[in-house]
Amino acid sequence: MKIFQCDGGHIVLPKPSLVLMSREDGGNLLVNPPREVWERSELNPDELTKWSFLVSATGRAMLDVLPQLTDGCINYWEAGNWALNEQAEPVGPKTPRLHRKMHLHLLGRGRSAPRWGDAPRFPDFTDRFSWSSAFERLSPEECRAIVIATETALRSKYGLPNRSIAPWSTCAGCGYPTCTDSVKSHILCEECTNKL
User: Fold this and answer.
1) Which residues form the domain of 81?
2) Is the pLDDT of residue 184 over 70?
3) For a designed S-S bond to 42, which of 3, 28, 37, 115 qualifies (C-beta 3.0 to 4.6 A apart)?
4) Is residue 164 within 8 Å of 6, Cβ to Cβ?
């Protein structure tokens, strides 16, 4: 679910079935670049700069607003390899340039998290759903606080003008922030719309 968008890309809350770090241990968000690329070197200098601003602002926001990250840190993990697994759709051998969609996972690492002080571990492709079943996504309130802090940092620290930041609203169904092109009071996010 896309919860924030600007010229530098967008912040995504992972699907409930694909969370890599539970909220109580520090949380998991994804930051996608402004356009799909298989490798970060495919971004032009302006895109890479603005994406880096978004990544940094999002990580700082997580550290500042999530109590579970007090005295913790963020691990930034570039991803996209599961799309290359032979069992991923379309089934069969794949090449990175055609199938990989590079994105960055921001993984909060709270001091109370299991294995504090070790690098995070990730499941094999075939175990991804059972692995994630034990983890809970960041809450709507946590995500709204992160979006507000990210937006503030993009404007104040990185100098992004208002026109570079897409409007967002709180979903009337679930309470998560959601990107919108209007200021209607009863906006639904993509997940709540798909449930209708």
Assistant:
1) 2-164
2) no
3) 37
4) yes
Domain of 32, CATH number, reads 3.30.428.10
Residues 11, 29 contacting (CB under 8 angstroms): yes
- Count of beta carbons in the 10 Å neighbourhood of residue 122: 17
In the chain, the number of structural domains is: 1
Point out which residues pair with 179 in neighbouring strands. Answer: 168
SS3 105: strand
**CA pair distance 192, 174, nearest whole angstrom:** 7
Q: E strand or H helix at 150, and its extent?
A: helix 140-156
**Is residue 189 a part of any domain in this protein?**
no
pLDDT tens for each residue of 50-108: 999 999 999 999 999 999 999 999 999 999 889 999 999 999 999 999 999 999 999 99
